User: Which sequence fits this backbone?
């Protein structure tokens, strides 16, 4: 069965159509390659979906700058992976289960050996916690929340604009330092992840601030603040009050 | 008079005071610039949940004023601005104003809010006091005026998202700060106050303990539009508290901090917050207020305080809280205090509210420096005891909390008062810089089939939280002649007004129905809106689904929704029959009648005269002065008698003031703009014509029945003591003063306001004459509010002993074989003390003028239960009566100190000027009409009309009734009595009312058929 | 007749703009709760209330009619409209009796702008009273015919 740790991990590799030639793709049988036209066009939610479907590791393979067939797709990929790693860390799957490999399409190289190394590393990490019974349900919620966060307008805007804002000039003719932007991204990733997690947790049954704090692993005061913002955005509403405890329920987000 | 004067005024500060001043000036023919630092007007009042003592929803009563100021053709709003330079002098100033960039083009932005929805960056929401977040592009609150977004430059990352989504192309990242130079004749300062920074009282743990919040934060917590949706929650864990405490005087009455003044409003707002909290919490909530003195000194405040104690069970503990500590595991808090029995106590609470005091606004030194005005030692604006509105620089006036901490009605009264001062110095320039509002020509809808548009308001969650508004909208769409219906978050907001106008055009609407709050407050706004869209204003009707539905059926959403449908159906049925009406106009006699020649009446008369109007001033006694004649000292040191002499002289010598002494007004006829009254003077009746009436009948000192007064000459009132002190006839060595004599009791439940100040004043005078004299003051609460606190402290420092007593243990005064004896309970020593004072001074209540009743009936204006005159609205119309053209001021309103009477008198004059300054007034169009063909000439209506508005005229050889429109008040009594049904009352026709009756009782199918 | 639900009377209230309508607003502002059985129609003055309005309400199935105006003697914004209302309603009640309609179904009250609690109390009391009286007899007749 799949739960046997002695079997090799399931790895999915999204690969740029232009990065390797057929001869270079001698990969272990546990690595499944999915061809895409450019690695920079990979939607982050697709990566999370892959994890949700049971992948133990995900690799993104593309071209090294400046050789992208689509000019700067690889740079987009770098940013997307940075954000995805932040989200993966929050889900409990761990940032290391995702790897970005950028190589030059004009040099010859052996993709198989790269894949083998990554596969070994994932093997060491063990199989995806989503398959372990005791944690699976919570991590599934986390992965769902991460998926929602990754598809949220707010994060997509930031991701889409990162280059423009950090490499070139923003609307005020200023350049935002990389670290500053990264800190903002960190904050937004965390906030969106937590809010969607709260949203998932309150879908079936209404919950209190304290219950949510325990489930999310942050302070009740922080949960309350997220709830105020979620109310403003129409994501959640007060369902009823039990004793002195208000219980909140998710609203379907349009 | 070298320089010419300018008929424009700059008002600095757009809180409720600034708005009121601006409206009064603009309505009196002056151009107004209203400048505020914030992106929108409204000030602190816009953040409040409810207001005391009526518990009116703050935003509900403020919003119409915001909208009125925003849409007034003579008011220009200059938001995001600060004053940076001043040249010139009174009558002709040149002010330089820096306008900080919004990064949004104000002319292009339509307030749609798409930018805020899409903005990826969150920032701390300062309107909600940091309890939640907002986006980096924002408006402060949904009803903001102007409804224009602003970019928070600190937080914005310049991602250009808002620019891309903005359909109006209003985003301008490169917009620079700009400077404007304004030419104005006078300036009014109304920058308000800043709440005390509670972090400075570190022993209370604010900023460290999450469940310690400030009073303004708590207002937001209570507010239905606040971060918690109106349920009280603990910030630490989101639980509803079971037990909360209010700690008074945080940052006030605190010598250590140097804030040795009382912030004047905190006692009342804390009582209000406690009452509202109890109402907002579904479970049981215990509220305790820790206080030093409860200063419920305003009109009807004590009755409110009493209700809080008796009806709501709020606990009051007299103690200054020493410190607050936290139980880290629960977030609960421990209040450490010394009980009334002098023993230290610790009590646990779930949440604590710090009643933070008022401080001068930030950057006030900068403003003072730019304008060249002096600040007092607390950095509030310096004013004089008899010149409460003047700053140290001529032509610059002050109002509201910037001159001293004060509540809303006093700020509003002062605002009108400052407007009076500001317009007086530029009176000849009236009307020169204003624009006349041109409404588009009226569309003739006479023969058209009714096409009704229905707008249904959620009022935030006030309606929408109970009534299922979308369902009512769908229902309305199916009603006969309704061609359009929609719901709005706030139908009263600026953007919805625009929307209504657009929808009228888009759907060719010829009748409009709004279902929201009460027509009593909002009908004028909507009428104006439909008029601006080219419809006659009377083609509008309102259904009251908030005050008379959602608010009174809060636990029956089903029934409330059905009732809302019934009410909408009923009003739509009326709307189908509405006819356009014309507003008659009447000429205004630019003359004032002032009843009462005390300080208030004289001030009001002088203000009106200085503005260029003629005034008749009627005083019952043989000389002017009233109550002020008996006042020889004031706490602030100025000489009231000298002031009185100057005032009397100015009044007597003014060419436009006609003074009638020993006279009384015996008859008042007519109506706003056109009164005809009879003055009985020297045995003769003189008829005068005037446009307005100001009631300034004052009040009198209560003659006590208590404490041997009248039986023993050693028992005096404060006035009698003051007279003795002034005449040098005082030589007592042991004096006991007893407060609240004839006030705060069963018969007169309210506080007489001025007696604490009087007692302190006279006690200080005694100490000045004889430092060794013993002075005791037996009090219930020492109510030395505002800067008067300083004198309380001074008296205590000079050895005046203040000892509290309660109703259960009142002091006893006896005469034992010629010896005056006094016994009182000493609460600290817990024993009765006996003494033999030389004199006992009673702080007797100030009671209404006995003549009030007659005057009230003559003018058709109401009195309070206590017998003072009752204004139109306790919060926002403090000197108006509900009856147009009649105003009140001074002690006729309620007991007051001199400076407060002066402020109110000036306010009444300013309000009166909004009428007297107009050549003609537009009247309500709801008047009776006679169908001359039907009229049988029976004269029943002529006999019944209480206003004499019906006269008989000959027409085609028969007598028919004729309505004098200017006199008709639109009551409809005549029409109801007319045997031939020849009289129709516009807007309330028999057909209209019957249609309403039928519709409200019938289900839909029946009326659709 | 078949419904088992408790009889919920429908009451029409004619309120003068200046006192009683304001009093009803105050009940709202003070959140004083009362039964949702009343539908208010605003008129400028209680003296404007034509007996025909009351009869029309009863004819159309109202189980009760409330007429509310400013306190006697001198609160009326229009000087004496309330006296006229008093006379008309008193007279009407006599007529109603002859028609077999309980005069208690029509009630005249004085409610000032500061009496939100009184307004709520009047409605509460009236609903109770009319529940005891049962549905408007005219409605029953209409159903039978």
Assistant:
């Amino acid at each position: 069965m799949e739960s046997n740790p002695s079997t090799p991990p399931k790895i999915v590799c999204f690969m740029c159509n232009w990065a390797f030639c057929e001869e270079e793709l001698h990969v272990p049988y546990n690595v499944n390659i999915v061809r895409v036209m450019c690695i920079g066009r990979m939607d982050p939610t697709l990566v999370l979906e892959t994890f949700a479907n049971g992948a133990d590791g995900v690799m993104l393979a593309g071209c090294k700058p400046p050789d992208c067939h689509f000019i700067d797709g690889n740079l987009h990929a770098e940013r997307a992976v940075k954000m995805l790693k932040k989200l993966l860390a929050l889900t409990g799957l761990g940032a290391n289960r995702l790897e970005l490999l950028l190589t030059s399409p004009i040099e010859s190289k052996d993709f198989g050996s790269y894949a083998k190394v990554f596969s070994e590393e994932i093997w060491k990490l063990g199989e995806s916690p989503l398959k372990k019974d005791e944690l699976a349900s919570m991590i599934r919620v986390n992965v769902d929340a991460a998926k929602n966060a990754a598809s949220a307008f707010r994060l997509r805007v930031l991701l889409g604009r990162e280059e423009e804002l950090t490499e070139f000039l923003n609307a005020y003719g200023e350049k935002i330092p990389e670290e500053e932007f990264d800190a903002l991204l960190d904050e937004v990733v965390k906030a969106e992840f937590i809010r969607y997690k709260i949203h998932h947790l309150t879908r079936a049954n209404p919950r209190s601030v304290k219950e949510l704090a325990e489930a999310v692993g942050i302070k009740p005061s922080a949960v309350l603040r997220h709830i105020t913002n979620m109310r403003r955005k129409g994501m959640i509403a007060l369902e009823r009050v039990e004793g002195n405890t208000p219980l909140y329920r998710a609203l379907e987000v349009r | 008079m070298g320089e010419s004067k300018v008929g424009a005024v700059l008002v600095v500060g757009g809180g409720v005071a600034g708005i009121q001043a601006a409206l009064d000036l603009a309505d009196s023919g002056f151009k107004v610039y209203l400048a505020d630092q914030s992106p929108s007007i409204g000030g602190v009042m816009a953040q409040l949940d409810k207001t005391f003592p009526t518990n009116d929803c703050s935003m509900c009563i403020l919003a119409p004023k915001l909208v009125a100021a925003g849409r007034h053709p003579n008011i220009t709003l200059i938001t995001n601005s600060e004053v940076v330079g001043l040249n010139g002098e009174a009558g002709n100033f040149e002010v330089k104003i820096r306008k900080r960039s919004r990064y949004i083009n104000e002319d292009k932005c339509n307030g749609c809010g798409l930018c805020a929805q899409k903005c990826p960056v969150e920032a701390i929401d300062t309107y909600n006091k940091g309890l939640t977040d907002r986006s980096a592009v924002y408006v402060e609150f949904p009803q903001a005026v102007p409804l224009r977004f602003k970019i928070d430059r600190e937080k914005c990352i310049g991602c250009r998202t808002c620019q891309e989504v903005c359909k109006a192309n209003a985003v301008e990242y490169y917009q620079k700060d700009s400077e404007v130079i304004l030419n104005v004749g006078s300036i009014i300062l109304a920058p308000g106050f800043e709440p005390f920074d509670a972090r400075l009282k570190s022993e209370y743990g604010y900023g460290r303990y999450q469940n310690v919040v400030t009073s303004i934060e708590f207002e937001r917590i209570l507010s239905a539009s606040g971060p918690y949706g109106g349920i009280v929650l603990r910030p630490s864990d989101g639980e509803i508290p079971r037990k909360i405490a209010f700690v008074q005087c945080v940052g006030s009455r605190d010598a250590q901090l140097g804030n040795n003044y009382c912030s004047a409003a905190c006692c009342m707002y804390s009582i209000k917050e406690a009452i509202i909290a109890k109402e907002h919490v579904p479970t049981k909530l215990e509220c305790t207020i820790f206080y030093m003195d409860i200063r419920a000194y305003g009109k009807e405040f004590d009755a409110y305080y009493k209700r809080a104690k008796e009806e709501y069970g709020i606990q009051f503990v007299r103690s200054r809280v020493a410190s607050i500590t936290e139980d880290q595991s629960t977030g609960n808090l421990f209040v450490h205090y010394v009980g009334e029995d002098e023993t230290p106590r610790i009590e646990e609470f779930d949440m604590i509210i710090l009643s933070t005091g008022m401080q001068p606004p930030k950057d006030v030194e900068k403003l003072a420096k730019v304008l060249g005005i002096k600040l007092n030692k607390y950095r509030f604006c310096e004013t004089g005891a008899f010149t409460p509105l003047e700053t140290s620089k001529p032509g610059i006036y002050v109002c509201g909390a910037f001159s001293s901490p004060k509540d809303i009605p006093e700020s509003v009264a002062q605002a009108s008062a400052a407007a009076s001062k500001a317009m007086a110095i530029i009176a000849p320039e009236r009307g020169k810089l204003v624009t006349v509002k041109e409404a588009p020509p009226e569309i003739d809808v006479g023969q058209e089939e009714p096409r009704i548009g229905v707008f249904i308001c959620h009022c935030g969650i006030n309606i929408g939280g109970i009534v299922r508004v979308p369902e009512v909208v769908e229902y309305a769409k199916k009603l006969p002649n309704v061609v359009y219906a929609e719901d709005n978050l706030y139908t009263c907001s600026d953007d919805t007004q625009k929307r209504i106008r657009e929808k009228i055009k888009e759907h060719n609407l010829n009748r409009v129905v709004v279902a929201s709050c009460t027509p009593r407050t909002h009908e004028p706004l909507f009428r104006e809106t439909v008029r601006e869209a080219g419809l006659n204003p009377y083609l509008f009707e309102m259904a009251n689904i908030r005050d008379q539905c959602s608010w009174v059926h809060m636990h029956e959403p089903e029934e409330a929704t059905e009732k809302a449908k019934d009410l909408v159906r009923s009003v739509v049925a009326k709307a189908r029959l509405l006819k356009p009406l014309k507003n008659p106009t009447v000429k205004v006699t630019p003359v004032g009648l002032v009843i009462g020649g005390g300080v208030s009446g004289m001030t009001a008369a002088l203000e009106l005269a200085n503005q260029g109007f003629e005034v008749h001033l009627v005083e019952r006694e043989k000389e002017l002065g009233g109550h002020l004649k008996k006042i020889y000292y004031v706490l602030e040191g100025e000489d009231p008698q000298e002031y009185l002499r100057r005032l009397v002289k100015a009044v007597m010598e003014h060419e436009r003031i006609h003074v009638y002494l020993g006279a009384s007004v015996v008859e008042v006829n007519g109506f706003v703009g056109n009164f005809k009254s009879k003055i009985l003077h020297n045995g003769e009746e003189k008829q005068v014509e005037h446009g307005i009436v100001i009631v300034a009948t004052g009040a009198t000192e209560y003659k006590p029945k208590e404490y041997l007064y009248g039986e023993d000459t050693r028992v005096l009132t404060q006035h009698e003591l003051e007279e003795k002190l002034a005449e040098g006839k005082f030589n007592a060595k042991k004096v006991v003063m007893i407060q609240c004599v004839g006030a705060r009791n069963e018969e007169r439940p309210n506080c007489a306001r001025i007696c604490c100040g009087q007692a302190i004043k006279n006690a200080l005078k005694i100490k000045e004459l004889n430092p060794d004299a013993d002075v005791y003051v037996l009090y219930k609460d020492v109510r030395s509010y505002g800067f008067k606190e300083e004198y309380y402290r001074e008296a205590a420092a000079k050895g005046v002993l203040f000892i509290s007593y309660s109703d259960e243990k009142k002091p006893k005064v006896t005469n034992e074989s010629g010896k005056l004896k006094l016994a009182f309970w000493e609460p600290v020593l817990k024993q009765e003390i006996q003494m033999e004072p030389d004199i006992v001074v009673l702080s007797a209540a100030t009671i209404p003028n006995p003549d009030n009743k007659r005057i009230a009936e003559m003018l058709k204006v109401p009195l309070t239960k206590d017998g003072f005159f009752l204004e139109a609205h306790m919060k926002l119309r403090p000197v108006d009566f509900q009856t147009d053209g009649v105003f009140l001021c001074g002690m006729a309103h309620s007991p007051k100190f001199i400076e407060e009477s002066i402020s109110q008198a000036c306010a009444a004059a300013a309000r009166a000027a909004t009428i007297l300054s107009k050549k003609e007034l537009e009247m309500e169009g709801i008047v009776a009409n006679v169908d001359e063909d039907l009229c049988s000439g029976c004269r029943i209506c002529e006999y019944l009309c209480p206003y004499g508005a019906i006269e008989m005229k000959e027409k085609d050889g028969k007598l028919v009734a004729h309505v004098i429109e200017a006199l008709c008040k639109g009551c409809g009594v005549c029409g109801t009595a007319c045997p031939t049904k020849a009289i129709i009352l516009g807007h309330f026709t028999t057909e209209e009312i019957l249609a309403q009756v039928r519709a409200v009782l019938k289900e839909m199918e029946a009326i659709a058929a | 007749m078949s419904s088992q639900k408790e009889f919920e009377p429908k009451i029409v209230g004619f309120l003068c703009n200046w006192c009683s309508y304001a009093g009803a607003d105050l009940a709202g502002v003070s959140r004083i709760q009362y039964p949702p059985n009343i539908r208010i129609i605003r008129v400028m003055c209680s003296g404007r209330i034509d007996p025909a309005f009351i009869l029309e309400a009863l004819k159309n199935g109202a189980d009760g009619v409330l007429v509310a105006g400013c306190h006697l003697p001198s609160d009326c914004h229009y000087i004496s409209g309330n006296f006229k209302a008093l006379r008309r309603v008193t007279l009407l009640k006599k007529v109603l009796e002859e028609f077999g309609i309980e005069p208690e179904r029509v009630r005249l009250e004085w409610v000032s702008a500061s009496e939100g609690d009184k307004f709520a109390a009047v409605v509460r009391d009236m609903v109770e009273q009319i529940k005891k009286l049962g549905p408007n007899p005219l409605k029953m007749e209409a159903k039978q015919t």
Remarks:
- The two ends of chain A are 41 Å apart (CA to CA).
- Chain A has a mean pLDDT of 88.
- Chains A and C do not touch (no CB pair under 8 Å).
- Strands of chain A lie at 11-16, 31-36, 57-63, 98-103, 236-242, 245-250.
